[in-house]
Amino acid sequence: MSAPLLELSGLTKAYPGVVANDDVSFGIGRGQIHALLGENGAGKSTLVKMIYGLVRPDEGEMRLEGRPHAPATPLEARAAGVAMVFQHFSLFDALDVAENITLGMADPPPRRDLAERIRKVSRDYGLPLDPNRIVGDLSAGERQRVEIVRCLLQSPKLLIMDEPTSVLTPQEVEILFATLRKLSAEGTAILYISHKLDEIRSLCDAATILRLGKVVGACDPRESSARELAEMMVGSALSAPARGGHVAGEVILEVEDLSLPPAHAFGTPLRRIGFGLAKGEILGIGGVAGNGQDELLAALSGERVSPRGSVRLRETDVSRMGPDARRALGLLSAPEERLGHAAAPDMSLMENALLSGHGRKALARRGFVDWGRTAAFARDVIARFDVRTPGEHVAARALSGGNLQKFVIGREVLQAPDVLVVNQPTWGVDAAAAAAIRQALLDLAEGGAGIIVISQDLDELMEISDRFAALNEGRLSAPVATATLDVERIGLMLGGAWDREKSHA
Amino acid sequence: MIRLEKRKEPSTLWSYATPFLAVALTVLAGGLMFAALGTDPVAAIRTIFYDPLFDPQYAAYSRPQLLVKAAPLILIATGLALGFRAGVWNIGAEGQYIIGALTGAGVGLALYPAETRLIFPLMVVAGALGGWAWAMIPAILKTRFNTNEILVSLLLVYVAENLLASMAVGRLRNPEGGGFPGSRNLSQWDAAANPELVAGTGLHWGVIAAIAAVIYAYILLNRHLMGFNIRLTGQAPRAARFAGVSPNRIVVFCLGLSGALAGLAGLFEVTGPAGQISIDFNVGYGFTAIIVAFLGRLHPLGIVLAGLLMALTYIGGELASFMLNIPAAAIQAFQGMLLFFLLAVDMLTNFRIRLGREAPA
């Protein structure tokens, strides 16, 4: 290959107490789809932030097309031909597609021209998008298209994508990959960050693996197995969780005819949801984000009460009870959003342990908090779930995503729930932490608890759940034994087609 | 070019240093204002901060005044701070203070001229209930109809002021007062009086109540689940709902408690330092307490220090307007500057200032 498009040499960036990137060097060729692999905290984000001008390296240099590349701001990086699609979208729900794209531009063209350009780019790259639609009404996949089209309008030389498929259905992933391959064929280089090894193997033609801020390997992912890639990333052999043969026990949680209006203008109503959960069973609930996942969790956790009789735990009607009363009866939950929902960002881990644990762990007597017991409980969670932190006095927001997630899941698991409902338990979590969390859920089910895992990671659901159901526009499909499913069928279920199937039968 | 850069974690140093920096800036800007009014700024600042405590001529009178003025401020601010911690913005403590004084005095005057030791405790309870009830109006409107408690509690202050005026010339007027507005003097009626407990210190029951409230608030916030829930609701409302905290309960608790404490402050004032219900009975403690709460970083112990400081500016301000002819409005502006500068420099806790055009590190 001739001189690479982007050449990184000796990039180093240190934060107080941690070296995020240590002497990182590699090159990305023109038109190459280059994977950047690594656990959470391996330094991937810092690296791409340096390329995109959000962070300045302490040492080392970057060269783009042979010229020094040292952007002080994302604006300069974009001017140099670097574009980035973030994991978290920065879109305004209440504005339409064209308005959102205008907001990112230094010198926006008149609306009619822009709308025409959006239509052209989206047509050329197979990303159907109507410039006049309100973003609040779009699915996660469509929102991502807005972000991608926003980048493509600048005709970038290098496109950085951070975990782009975490919110997509299998069909949407195929569309995205087709787009990326087309871009690559036209000479645009793509730096692709993902945890999903199979995707990387099918899409990318080069890979750089980071561990603890250092480059630990480079390979051609098409010629390596997922296991080899994972082992390079983690540095030790992965233990894949094993689903022990389990016999369905008696039904412990019953949901019947559960309907709820949306909580806010862009929410999803729940429509007549019904299922039963047996002791020792893991029920996986899939679905594209925004199809009622948050609402279902809120209705099960007790954050929102539902019509009388719609949620029953061991014959007890809990549908009008709040979270505390449900916890006392053994129904626990862990919401998707770690910071601000499952945990209070500015509070210490100790205080966050108290947050949901004070009832079942008896951390308060007559309302007076026993901080000694609370600290001990927090330390127990930290130790048993391998939460990497200096101690229980550290603020929750100081932890990396994976570590905080281990803490949040551990906090609920160690309260010995009879039923545990988790939403996106391994979202944005590195492979080792994800494996640990899944194993903890499997162990909990082994001990007789019923577990509901709401997730957009289908591989995860296939791996750990006994039965699978899909949420689509607030409706839940009938649960199906996971062993009988294939990708085609899942795609149909996620798209809401199970209904039609049933009515034909 | 000056830029602000967000800190990764709030600076502990600055969270303690900002109140002092704010006081320093207030002295500076206040000095400029006094100079613009044609007063010697050094003399003005000295009269406000130094003379009330150390001047041989005035200190004997003004030193006890420190506790007299600080007590209602601390009592009210402690209650307000609990609400502010939870994101419940009771701006109407002034109204609750007036109503507490009216209900407390009303109960006492209804029993005049009986001489039993039960009257004062009864008035204390009535005062607290009056403030509580007045605060329940915004609380119920918020929880039932989702109205804004800032507006409702603030507007009720003006209702309370009119009620006070009507009571002072109407139902509570002293029948032996020769038709002058104002009630009987409660401080001269032993059964209802809130006297100076130790001569020359300014210590009265309101001071003791303020100390008790500070200790109660400290324990509540640091040792009790209710205090934890209050902090949780303020910091992460969604996490609070997940934890099972009812937002409505927090609103009712915080408004109720701050209302009751403001009512108590009013009762202790009307039975002691003020002595009677009069048209201009309220002097703005309820509003100044908002400054005290923030100046004290919403922390019970910080509020004690802030309350004493604000009391000093009250006493010193009076002295300055009397000695140096500084208008009373200028003194109020001076106190307002304190809150203004505090809120302004508060951002140093979460941001650092960078000079020049540098890339964020």
Describe, in short, the structure shown:
The complex is a heterodimer of chains A (505) and B (361). Chain A is of the alpha/beta class and 505 residues long.
List keywords for this structure.
heterodimer; A: 505 residues; alpha/beta; Rossmann fold; 2 domains; seven-stranded mixed β-sheet; six-stranded mixed β-sheet; 23 strands; 23% strand; disordered C terminus; B: 361 residues; mainly alpha; ABC transporter involved in vitamin B12 uptake, BtuC; two-stranded antiparallel ribbon; 15 helices
Question: How are the SSEs ordered, and which strands pair?
Answer:
The complex is a heterodimer of chains A (505) and B (361).
Chain A: E1 6-15, E2 18-28, E3 33-37, H1 44-51, E4 59-64, E5 67-68, H2 74-80, E6 82-85, H3 97-103, H4 111-124, H5 140-152, E7 158-162, H6 170-185, E8 189-193, H7 197-203, E9 206-211, E10 214-219, H8 226-234, E11 251-260, E12 270-278, E13 282-286, H9 293-301, E14 311-313, E15 316-317, H10 323-329, E16 331-334, H11 349-357, E17 364-365, E18 368-369, H12 371-384, H13 401-413, E19 419-423, H14 431-446, E20 450-454, H15 458-464, E21 467-472, E22 475-476, E23 480-481, H16 487-494, H17 498-504
Parallel strand pairs in A: 3-8, 3-9, 6-7, 7-8, 13-20, 13-21, 16-19, 19-20
Antiparallel strand pairs in A: 1-2, 1-4, 4-5, 9-10, 11-12, 11-14, 14-15, 17-18, 21-22, 21-23
Helix pairs in contact in A: 11-12, 11-13, 12-13, 13-14
Chain B: E1 2-6, H1 12-36, H2 41-49, H3 51-54, H4 59-86, H5 93-110, H6 119-145, H7 149-169, H8 205-223, H9 225-235, H10 237-243, H11 247-271, H12 285-295, H13 300-323, H14 328-345, H15 347-350, E2 351-355
Helix pairs in contact in B: 1-2, 1-14, 2-13, 4-8, 4-9, 4-11, 4-12, 4-13, 5-6, 5-7, 5-11, 5-12, 6-7, 6-11, 8-9, 8-11, 8-13, 9-10, 12-13, 12-14, 13-14
